[in-house]
Amino acid sequence: CPQCGKSFRTNYELTAHQRTHTVDWPCECGECEKSFTQSSNLTAHRHIHTRERPYQCPQCEKSF
């Protein structure tokens, strides 16, 4: 990263990281005022509002 010197394996990871240095956080939550640089992070965040826990551990059956 030209701004902080951090290294990344892929250009995709570098691009995602570079957004943390800017105000370009295009994925906004409709329930609260949080914004995210990637839609996948917004999707994970939305589970907080829905209390949905779509992932279940196959060993202990606890949901996340």
From TrEMBL:
- Where does it live in the cell? Nucleus
Q: Which Gene3D superfamilies match?
A: Classic Zinc Finger
Short name of any one Pfam family annotated for the protein: zf-C2H2
Q: Which molecular-function annotation in GO is an example for this chain?
A: RNA polymerase II cis-regulatory region sequence-specific DNA binding
- Locate the C2H2-type domain: which residues? 1-26, 25-54
Q: Which UniProt keywords apply?
A: DNA-binding, Metal-binding, Nucleus, Repeat, Transcription, Transcription regulation, Zinc, Zinc-finger
Q: Which SMART domains match?
A: ZnF_C2H2 (SM00355)
Asked if the record carries the keyword Translocase, the reply is: no
Q: What is this protein called?
A: ZN180 protein
Which InterPro entries does the entry link to? Znf_C2H2_sf, Znf_C2H2_type
The terms describing its cellular component in GO are:
nucleus
